[in-house]
Amino acid sequence: MNDRNHAVVQTLVSAKDVALGVVNCAGQTLTIMPGQVIGLLGKNGAGKTTLLDGLLGYTFLNAGEVTVFGHNPTELPAEVCSQIGFVAQQDDLMPWLTGSEMLAATRLFYKHWNYDLADRLVDRWSVPTWQKISEMSVGERQKLALVAAMAHEPQLLVLDEPAASLDPLARRALISELIDIVADGERSILLSSHIFSDIERVASHIWLLEKGSITYQGGLDELKESVVRLHLTRPLQVTASLALTTRHVIRTDISTGRETWIIRGWNEALAAECAAQITSPYQVEALGLEDAFVEISQ
């Protein structure tokens, strides 16, 4: 952990009844606690970027309330801004500057700047800091934006599709850095990404955004364990009703000799009901995060 004095807070971000654009989280409270890595998942158009903009004060809310380090995000004092790092889906780098000039300009806004970290990231990601930003590739610009957001070691790092333009080696290096960031249990990350393998490697919690509303917020492992494929041999033979299980079926696929139920909300009670009532062969298939997301989103 760095040697700066951090404000003592229990909750880094709190959002209640947020509504803006396509996002409508009425009746919901979202929180980011120290040490959490939250993966924000949702289909294109679900409102992920809109939600991030609302949480950080880049967009005024239509309804609801957000606090960031205890402050209204549209009125953050300088000392709070210095605790936040943000990389947008489309960078706001100044194209007429070189990479080195951009980093020099960025560090003027922060009391703390880890020169060794910045140099290490530039070297590890092969960022051509001598070039003008206008001459860099999209991936190089993204790497530079990440260095600018991470070098002041913020307590809260918010990343909107940070690896979309990175090559596999750079992505792996980014995830390694993110893991190091939260190793002390005090700094937090909110990460929006369509690269599910990256989310699985680093996230501790998931926010699932569907049609503008958060339909799941909780542990990553708990989400994966709650969505399964139940493969049943036809004809299905049962000794009694499967009423509890069938209430959680979100989709059914039928093929010759087999029927598959996609179940959202799988738990010990459903497993016990199936074990007690189904006498024909069946199999419960656990899913990875990407497969679980696909099944939920269909």
Helical run tally: 11
Instruction: Count structural domains.
Output: 2
* CATH architectural arrangement of the largest domain: 3-Layer(aba) Sandwich
Low-pLDDT parts are: 1-9
Helix content: 25-40%
Which structural class is indicated by helix and strand composition? alpha/beta
What order do the helices and strands follow?
Answer: EEEEHEHEHHHEHEHEEHEHEEHEH
CATH superfamily of the largest domain: P-loop containing nucleotide triphosphate hydrolases
Largest sheet: 6 strands, mixed
Q: Name the shape in a single word.
A: elongated
What does the radius of gyration come to?
Answer: 22 Å
User: How many individual β-strands?
Assistant: 14
Specify the CATH class of the largest domain: Alpha Beta
Side-by-side strand order of the widest sheet = 6-7-8-4-9-10
Overall average residue pLDDT? 92
What fold name stands as the CATH topology of the largest domain?
Answer: Rossmann fold
**Span of the ends, CA to CA:** 42 Å
